[in-house]
Design brief:
The chain is an alpha/beta fold and about 270 residues long. It contains 11 helices and 8 strands. The structure holds adenosine-5'-diphosphate (ADP) and magnesium ion. Magnesium ion binds near residues 16, 17, 40 and 45.
Length: about 270
């Protein structure tokens, strides 16, 4: 059964896209076939950071009914991507039926991949939450700024209240040290558990590193650069911990799975 991982944060600039593309690249290289889905639909930038020029994208699936298989684009190191479109205002507030149709369409790719990594947009809009809630692992990127903390909390609240998710994986980004990352996570976890009966699992951290900034300028992700061993080891550790963390068992509509029992919490 293919595994799906969605990367969220609530906040823009927390490092969702950086984490998602690099995780997808590392999984593809080390563990099995991966597909990167750019679910930041209208402001997509994953393909730019992967230096890829797909001829078709998600908009072609949703608007023109192109089969999702035909939109798969071969990126660096054999990673396949389902690109979004940049500046497509029609896709910014995708309605629920279109989001459902897309998740359904992705089910047809089960034989094409072992791992699906989904990059999501900032904010906790309904389509962003649906794309994340459909994954086996709902990952929240936490950064050590007041806004990052609040937005990561809002993401968990949205996943819990709107989709009944009770298992969340947390990755700390841009940490100065292992201790700082761990301490930020513990404070976050305490806050979350005070207000919601959920489980939050720590899945490691990415150090603050100039290499990520340089990668965004050169469009050569750290996962593909031999000089970025520290970052790659951190990414492999994160991938391992995410995949070992408890599965999201809530939500009706899922990537690659029959619907588990619906568990929506009406608060
Ligand atoms: N661990 C990191 N260290 C330093 N810079 C980072 C790190 N992770 C991401 N960045 C940089 O932060 C900026 C925002 O990252 P991005 O992945 O686009 O965030 P998001 O997708 O959440 O908006 C980019 O310039 C990226 O290179
Ligand atoms: Mg992004």
């Amino acid at each position: 059964m293919s595994k799906s991982i969605a990367i969220t944060s609530g906040k823009g600039g927390a490092g969702k896209t950086s984490l998602a593309i690099n995780l997808a690249l590392r999984l593809n290289e080390k563990r099995g076939k991966a597909i990167f889905l750019d679910a930041d639909f209208g402001m997509a930038n994953g393909h730019i950071l992967l230096k890829s020029r797909p001829t078709l994208d998600i908009m072609d699936v949703l608007v023109d009914g192109v089969p999702v298989r035909d939109v798969l684009h071969l990126g660096p190191k054999g990673l396949r991507l389902l690109a979004g479109r940049t500046g497509a205002t029609e896709l910014l507030n995708l309605d629920d039926s279109k989001t459902e149709a897309l998740i359904q369409a992705i089910n047809t790719l089960e034989d094409e991949c072992d791992y699906l990594v989904v990059d999501t947009s900032a904010g906790a809009e309904s389509n962003t939450l649906a794309c994340a809630a459909a994954a086996d692992h709902f990952v929240v990127v936490l950064v050590g700024q007041a806004t990052g903390f609040v937005d990561a909390y809002a993401m968990i609240k949205g996943g819990f209240k709107q989709h009944g998710i009770t298992n969340f994986s947390v990755v700390v980004n841009m940490a100065e040290s292992k201790e700082e990352a761990q301490s930020l996570f513990e404070t976050f976890k305490k806050t979350v558990l005070r207000f919601m009966p959920v489980q939050v699992d720590y899945c490691g951290y990415l150090p603050y590193s100039r290499a990520f900034y340089n990668a965004a300028v050169s469009c050569h992700p750290v996962a593909t650069q031999p000089a970025c061993q520290v970052e790659q080891t951190a990414l492999d550790n994160i991938a391992d911990r995410i995949l070992k963390s408890p599965l999201n068992r809530a939500m009706a509509q899922r990537y690659f799975q029959d619907a588990p029992q619906q568990n929506v919490i009406n608060l």
